[in-house]
Design a protein that fits this description.
The complex is a heterodimer of chains A (169) and B (267). Chain A is an alpha/beta fold. Chain A contains five helices and five strands; from the N terminus they run αβαββαβαβα. In chain A, strands 2-1-3-4-5 form a five-stranded parallel β-sheet. In chain A, strand 4, helix 4 and strand 5 form a beta-alpha-beta unit. In chain A, helix 1 runs antiparallel to helix 5 and helix 2 packs across helix 5. Chain A is elongated. The N and C termini of chain A lie far apart (60 Å). Chain B has 267 residues and is of the alpha/beta class. Among the domains of chain B are: 124 residues, Beta Polymerase, domain 2 (2-Layer Sandwich), CATH 3.30.460.80; 61 residues, no CATH class. Chain B has seven helices and eight strands, in the order E-H-E-E-H-E-H-E-E-E-H-E-H-H-H. In chain B, the strands form two sheets. Chain B has a six-stranded mixed β-sheet with strand order 1-2-3-6-5-4. Chain B has a two-stranded parallel sheet with strand order 7-8. In chain B, strand 2 and strand 3 form a beta hairpin. The longest helix of chain B has 13 residues. Chain B is elongated and about 90 Å long. The model of chain B has no long low-confidence stretch (mean pLDDT 87). The chains are: A alpha/beta (169), B alpha/beta (267). Chains A and B meet through helix 3 and helix 5 of A and helix 6 of B.
């Protein structure tokens, strides 16, 4: 059996890293953001491209899930119609805390070019949004940037604070 | 063709109307110019009273006098005249001009390679006879016509809305229906999800597409650097939209401009 002599005092010192529980937990959370696919329109194509091999979201720990129970972040990609609004709210409610929402593309942000009777004028009327991602449709790099900004936001949050009551509950 | 609109100010409403503008129409030809159509029209004329008939864009257009003739005409078209497909049917809203809807049916004969259109007019409170028994494609088409115009199809087996939700009010394709929705439509998602009490909490829809407010960080319509929701932009420095903190993130390589590499060849 090989004997390893560990020199604790060499190089970078003791193999001990000091941190806070907050930082550790949120570091873990931010690097395994499982996303609920919410492809509603053409933005979904860009979202799928982000998950595929060229842009490879798995690098960020962002793995797309088809179930709200297993998801941390909802990526609303596309036009939300009024008929569908109640279902997006139900799926959001089914996600477990902590949960975040990325509103992807002009239609999800503000209704976009669909200034009509049948389109919800921004998903933030229904669910609280953390990151607004402009573009029509945003390129996969832009979605990556949004996810990284969300990771930064999560790292700043406290791990054990009570789930903050967002605007609509 | 659309009427000319000044592109520089496309949002502004047109305040004038060209009094002498006549909307362009496709030329109409005599039915006798096509042998097949002439025969078809002769057969149909025996069964139903034809008000007007002409050929437009290579398609026979027949306008019926009596709306109840449509079932007999459709049966004849399918069984005798080989028009086996009802490719489309719906209505046009002419309530403001003439006080009536114009219902149209588009038939296709694969055998003759011909298309035929049957039209007739109905008043607002009148119903049409369903073609469901003859053409199965009339099922959804008639439901859509009911949804969009409020025209009822008699003896349809399942007449309910197809595009809009069941509890929707109004019929969106009528000319009298506002493009941005009536009051029910504008509050629909709030009313169904949270209840009417929440109208005050959420507030009315922002439909001004030109709206930009640099100081507003509550809503999306904002320019300038990224800041958290509701925060004052003055409290944040220019580097806030950098995706990594100043001190870096554990176990993640910090991206710097110095480390970046530009590839000249494709790997």
């Amino acid at each position: 059996m090989a004997q390893h002599k560990v020199n604790y005092m060499a190089d970078s010192g003791l193999p001990v890293a000091l941190t806070t529980v907050d930082k550790l937990v949120q570091w873990g959370r931010s690097n395994s953001l499982w996303a609920l696919t919410y492809g509603l329109a053409c933005c979904a194509i860009e979202m799928m491209a982000s998950g595929a091999s060229r842009y490879d979201f798995d690098r960020f720990g962002t793995i797309f899930r088809a179930s709200p129970r297993q998801a941390d972040v909802m990526v609303v990609a596309g036009t939300l119609t009024k008929k569908h609004a109640q279902f997006i709210r139900r799926l959001y409610d089914q996600m477990t805390e902590p949960k975040w929402v990325i509103s992807m593309g002009s239609c999800a942000n503000t209704g976009g070019m669909f200034n009509t009777y049948a389109t919800v004028q921004g998903v933030d009327r229904i669910i609280p949004v953390d990151i607004y991602l402009p573009g029509c449709a945003p390129r996969p790099e832009t979605l990556q940037y949004a996810v990284m900004m969300l990771q930064k936001k999560i790292r700043k949050q406290s791990a054990f604070q009570k789930a903050k009551t967002k605007r609509l509950v | 063709m659309r009427a000319y609109q000044d592109r520089k100010n496309a949002q502004a409403k047109v305040y004038y109307k060209d009094r002498f503008y006549v909307s362009p129409q496709l030329p109409k030809e005599e039915v006798d110019s096509d042998e097949v159509f002439a025969k078809d029209l002769a057969t149909i004329s025996k069964k139903a009273e034809v008000k007007e008939a002409y050929i437009q864009r290579g398609q026979l257009v027949i306008i019926l006098e009596n709306r109840h003739d449509i079932v007999a005409v459709a049966k004849l078209l399918k069984e005798k005249l080989t028009y086996t497909q009802l490719s489309e049917m719906s209505a046009n809203d002419f309530l403001a001009d003439r006080g009536e809807f114009e219902v149209f049916y588009q038939f296709l004969s694969m055998e003759k390679r011909k298309r035929l259109r049957v039209k007739y007019s109905i008043k607002e409170d009148q119903a049409v006879d369903s073609l469901y028994d003859i053409y199965k494609s009339a099922d959804w088409a008639e439901r859509e016509m009911y949804d969009m115009f409020g025209i009822v199809a008699n003896e349809h087996p399942n007449l309910k809305r197809i595009l809009m939700p069941d509890d929707w009010s109004g019929h969106p394709l009528r000319k009298s229906y506002p493009l941005q929705g009536d009051e029910d439509a504008q509050w629909y998602e709030i009313d169904t999800i949270f209840g009417k009490d929440y109208r005050e909490v959420v507030g009315p829809e922002i439909r001004d597409t030109k709206r930009i407010d640099p100081k507003d960080t509550e809503n999306f319509a904002r320019i300038g650097k990224e800041v958290p929701r509701g925060a004052n932009p003055k409290d944040f420095d220019e580097n806030y939209d950098d995706f990594q903190e100043e001190g870096g993130v554990p176990l993640i390589t910090r991206f710097t401009k110095k480390n970046q590499k530009t590839l000249t060849d494709r790997k």
